[in-house]
Each structure stands twice: as C-alpha cells, then as structure tokens.
Write a structure and sequence with these properties.
The chain is mainly alpha-helical. It folds into three domains: 85 residues, no CATH class; 128 residues, no CATH class; 64 residues, no CATH class. Helices cover 52% and strands 10% of the residues. The longest helix has 22 residues. It is elongated.
Length: 306
Amino acid sequence: MQDDSNVYTCIGCHVNNYYVDALGYADDITLLCPTIRGLNKMLQICEQFADDFKITFNSKKTLCIKFGGPVHPEEIAVINGCIIKWVDQVRHLGNYVSNNLSDNQDCNIKCATFINSVNKLVGNYGNVSHDVLNRLFNVYCCSFYGSQLWDLNSKGSEKCYISWNKAVRRVLKLSNRTHTWLLGPLIGHLYIKVQLELRTLSFMYNLLHSDNRTVHNIASIILSHANSTIGLNYSYLMHKYQISIYDDLYCNKNRIKSSNVLENENEVATVCNIKTLMDCRNNDSCLNDFNAEEINYMIEVLTTSI
C-alpha cells in the first residue's frame, strides 16, 4: 500500500494486539468491524478496489450480521449504492453462524442431513450384509461437517448424539432400549461424541500450527481462554482426558481412544456374544438349534438388561 493508505490501518477488529479486518476464502470475503461507521469505510475501500481492478461485488448476495446486540435503525451499511440486508444468521462455507453465537441452528441442519442419509441408507441397502451396512453408515452418513466449531456439550450437539444413538439402533435392528455404551462397539466405531472430540482436537492442532500468522495468533489466544467455543472445548478435553494442546497430537489421540475402549472382560464378552447372535440373525442361520425368534429374544436381553 501507499503511504496515504495508512489511515485505514485502524479500521476493523483487534484481538489483543492482532489486527483482523478481512478474511477471505476463494471468492468469499468477510469484513470484521466493531462500528457501522468503520464498516462503511471498509466497504468504500472494497468499492474502490473493485473499480480499480474491474470486478464487481454482488450487493444482492452481501449480508450483514451483528453480534452482541440488536441492530439499530441508524445502522445502515451500503455497497454499490445498495443498502445491505441485516440477518440473524448467515451460511458461510457450509456452516451457519448466528448472531447470538449459538450453534443450535447449524447442529439442527447437520442433524437433519444425517437423518436423511440414514433413511436413504436403510431404504436402499437395508438388506445387505451386517458388515457392509456398518461400513456404509460410518463412511457415508456420519460426516457432521463443521462439527469442529460446535460446543461439544451444547444442546444442539447433544441432539446429534441422540440422533446417532437412534440411527445405530435402527441400522443394527436393535431395541430402542439398547444401552448406549454398546452402540459404538457394535457398529465398529467409537461413540459419536468421542469421534467429534477427536475431530475437534485435530482442528485445534491445525489452527495452532497453521502457517497463516493470523490464524496461529488468534488460535493461541482462544485456546488459553475458555470464553470462546474452541477455548471451552479445549478446557473440557484437557480436564476430561488430562491432555495438553502442546503435547504430541498422536499421543493425545491415543489417550482419548484408549479411555473409550472396553476393558472389562464381561463387557467385551457381552459385545462378542451379541455380534455372534446378530450375524446368525442377519444370515438367517440357526445357532445350536435356536430359531430366529429365540435369537432375537437373546439379543434383546443382552442389549437391554445388562
């Protein structure tokens, strides 16, 4: 920039001593500013840039969102002579951001996507082998895209855990009263919350070790304070598993996994017995002269009465 552009360096947001005014990804640009006056000044700079380089900002697709309070009538943002619409939430890179910083809306949408995927899976492939159905479920239904940004203990994320519980019981053709601790071992994966905990931990490491200086600096701040979603999640994981973000990622992941592996011999034996019975049921074969109805009864007893 030329010297006369230094007047703009104070416009935008500051996090401690780090200046964060604009974030860009592909053709998406996010401007951050604590005042409407500053925001309009930033928009004017964008208009000048667009004019200089012969590009156009689409005013119809441009939205404003305010965090921390209601929008006042005099707070008007303008680009290309058009007033920008204020919204309570915005979809950015596939994730929904709300003005109250709640993740409930994003969780609800991702949960609905999950349920829809499970319905398609069961409807189209419900009769394939047990192992194939499990793999399809784990690979194609459980993406929960953007879950790294959720509060791991929010109402929204809890709703997704409950939906996963119900889906596993449905995929495995188990009673609705099947104990939750059995679902992960029977589906051949870690429990859904543990899966998301591991994803969140990897996300934190990626932030902290990013080559982007702004990302690295902001990550260092939020991980040391539990007043943000990421900081709150880190505090939760740190105390639950006695880990540190500054330790090796591989070791931390192993600690989380080992903390959620069945070690009790009776529990391991129970899971093995249930899997054997499920294989017999799914293959329409008898076990020691037990018929299908008796096998189903034994599965229900083992999954609900322990």
